[in-house]
User: Fold these one by one.
Assistant:
Number 1:
Amino acid sequence: MKILAVLLAVVCVSSAQFPAGWNYNPYLYFPYSALQPPAQETAEVAAARASHMAAHAAVARRARSVEDTPEVRAATIEHYRAYNEAALANGVFAFLPARYANMPWAMPQPVQDTPEVAAARRAHLAAHALAAARG
């Protein structure tokens, strides 16, 4: 067992490397501090780059998603409703991803106040405002 430990130590020592060079740089042709500044663009290259980026921006403005027609939108909503009804009938609680914001059945909604609660809340806030105005 001792011979195995000695052999392992010899192998580790012989395979170890010393990072030579300036600032431990393995490439010995220049130190890290001797990096050259990046090349500067000529006026023609800068103008070509600006026109290229302007063309990209123009295409990006035109490449919006196409809105569905009302018929397609209604058919999609009806499809989602039918899918969800079939899934719930089979014991699966799954929703298709909601594409439209006006699908109140697709996502859980916060609890809404009843008209009586809303009227009581308005009266309560009015009483608070009156008390605050009195000082």
Note: The helical segments are 2-15, 43-62, 70-89, 115-134.
Number 2:
Amino acid sequence: MNQAANLENVLEQLRLEYIESSGDKLDQIDSLISDLLDFDDTKWREIFIEFQRQIHTIKGTAGSYGFQIVTEIAHSLEDYLETSNILGANQLGDIQLYVDNMRWIFEAGKNPAEDIAIEILRKLPTPNKSVFSNQEIRHIPVVLVMPYNIQRKIIANELTSCGFRVFIADTSVRAIELALIHKPTIVFSNYDVSDINGVELALVFRSIAATKAVNIAILSSQKTTNQQFAALPEDVKVIRKGENFSEDLAECLLDWQVFIKEARRSQTKNDRSHLRISFEGQVPIKKNDKEFLGKTVDISAGGLALKINKLVAADKNPFERGDRVTLDVKELSCLSGSIIRIKKDDIIIRFELDQSLEDRLLAEIMLVTNDT
């Protein structure tokens, strides 16, 4: 009995020493973040490599001392670093929030309750703010399962630019762990993974109650008719890597209606504006076969209204209330609507759509990137 008590005391002493040393390590990391703001070129790279090494060390040791949430925060920080286009002052400010959360948990001396831990992970910053103007796309977690290489960074970056929070797994086993922790909306898996392949992973996900409904896509350069996909569940998509990736990804997102479902889920009962999506870009609207370009588009669902201001190539506002106009955005089919309000340079157009067409229009507009 005394031996057990002594062992417990030793383990507790080791845990307290680890907490103290981790605080010192986080102090070093804080200094490294400050240095990253002050240096560039070769010196910056040396500091950044040391910063990554310190984060990796914390990630590898925290779980052994009962701080699993710190391990997950460190994992998420590594994902943030991999999916960032740039590491400037704004991004370093985000990184500081990751470090502050780790420090808060160490200072508390124990893992937070599960609901608090989930909320901490959910609120961690994401890189590369969405291209869809100032409109916030809500937290949509996805898991990307790929071995580390430049292709993974490119794909992770593209998913991030769509408004997703990307959690990266090197192995299928880690992917399952991430899925159980973060409950992703989508799992994107490379066909070739070190432990089990993407098709086998999809079958595993479909056999687990907690993940059986998750959207899954396999990333492959092979044709879908290839024998390797023979066992693929019917509801699992295949996305071609390479030049077809963006097209296949967009088609999958539209079929799954990911953005629309997330937006509807995030609405409150008192939210009278319904769905609202904005992006900066030029959008043609036509009247009597004459085309005008409008800048800044604001789509609101609840009928579907379109607001356009800053008309291009027009001496004065050429539209009047009641005018019939058409909208053509990228690859959208032309849609007709009536102008219901004109205020200064703003035009509000109302479209009469059924729910499914409205959802598809909104989803496609959310996929439009800023080309101007």
Note: The longest strand covers residues 276-287.
Number 3:
Amino acid sequence: MDADAALVRRLSHIQHVLLVLSGKGGVGKSSISVQLALALLAHDPTLRVGLLDVDLTGPSLPRMLGMEGRDVLASDDGWVPVYLDASKARLGVLACMSIGFLLSSSRESVVWRGPKKNAMVKQFLAEVRWGELDWLIVDTPPGTSDEHISLLESLRPLLMPPSPSAPLAPPLPTLSALLVSTPQAVALLDVSKELSFVRRTRLPLLGLVENMSGYVCPHCGDIVGVFGTGGGEDFCRRDCEKRQPGMQLPEGEEEGEGCRFLGRVPIDPELVKLLDAAAQSQQPTGSAIDGGAGGGGGPARRKTLVERYEAIPSFPVVAQIAETVRTLVYQQVEREANEQGKRLVAVERRRRATS
């Protein structure tokens, strides 16, 4: 099977692909990726969610999810991702794939040139056996590096409208992107470059999340603007003003909506504690820590990471952002279905006119 066919086969089992992007490093893009995955599962415990870490030189998802030291298994059908919270209390799945699982040590560096990075990204997309997924959230490195270019080249079929005259093919997932920034001007300058990249590649954009927008005091619950606040919302407002009808757009960009503001996520010490403690909470299914299949006299089942995440102060904020993401993606699905219907009608009209 050639690489393109293998990729299409994998993608045909996924409903939605979401790329999490940032212009600058250190803005909390990986934590937003993890929180979105947990919030989606909190909303619907039956969902099957995948997290793909393509930050090849700085993988952080294994540590955040308490998966360090876990192994990726190889099968006849590709790599098997690492699964989280294999508890009978929830029917959903959270799976993760990262180069961090393939390194001999978490301290081992990855010093690769572009071609090797490109090959690794394509291998992740085509050879990981996710199974059926509702969401695949892709955590990317900052900026617009080799990983981004390889990712967009591989996922290009998702941005191309299917030809009505082409043979019936497996349905492919929606593809969209989400930007993450902190409130400071220097971070917003870099995210403006990322926004330009998104528009030039015609990648559907859901909007921008302002991360680290204040600090949640663990004593009184008040939010203090350590890095300032409101910068992300102001950035989106200015971008929308620039894209009013009749305004001249930058070269290479098409008309469209301005960047939507999705919300602010504060620094939450409880989230830090939760993710730092995740490594100690991951045990094999059937152990006392998750209750397993033991008898009635055994210890009570410990809460999963998703359940514990629901209890932290910042969860409602991210849950609202996740709800907005779901709504926007479902609207995108509806628009694409309508466009495909129009194309089919046009083809049928041409066929009748020439018959």
Note: Residues 283-295 have pLDDT under 50 and may be disordered.
Number 4:
Amino acid sequence: MDCCSGYCWFFPTPDITSKTITGILEARLIDQVGVPRVFTVDNARYFTGVYFRAWVASIGATLRCIPVASPHRNALLERQHSGLKKSLKALCAEHPESWPAYVTKAQRRINTRSTYGYSPQELFYGFDALTPFSRRFEDVSNTIDEDSARFEARRRDRERQRMVNSTLNVMEKMRADALSRINPSTYTRQVARRRLFKVGDSVMKWVRNVDPLTPSWRGPLLVQQVLGDSTYKLSDGTVQDSRNMRKYFGKAQNMNPITIAYIQ
């Protein structure tokens, strides 16, 4: 998914190995659309393995992993899975085994649904998806003269620029609308509670406990890199959200991993 416009690509795969995924991405995304600046992925083994990381580096992109135990960081994409399943169910209900043939149809439906009056297709490409019934000026006969072609080219250029400007305006409108929905007092409290760390800080990270007697916090660990807003890479190689981190106030020289358990 393109993070700005919400435009999605769906690719059926015979398996979920890193080699298969990178091959499909290179042939059907990189070669046709271009190289993205950043790949943001979850912590699945086929995304975090050496093969996938090396491939991302080879095409000149940056790989970022979503912090563990932070489903809200990938909520926009996860919601599209529900729409994909509903579309496929409606298209191939009688023959569910043929679902790969209908993935592109479902993708088109998702990308042409309007948000704020504009679809992801229009926000990504700058124009809405055309159908055989909506094409204009398709006269390609030999009788068309050079002046007419020049006039039509200029008209299309103006129309293209108008649509680009309209797309930029709607994106600003969406941003302003999102900000207007935020309660100032609530946002202020959220910012005040936000935990900030810097490179070299000793921290504990939260881990999911199976039962009340298992550890809830693990560490101490060092902050190795600040990846973005509330996102940190720790010395154990994991990427964590600041909500799942606490500062460790023990002695700096005592960095042997320990665990802390809260008994409820």
Note: Residues 196 and 230 are 7 Å apart (CA to CA).
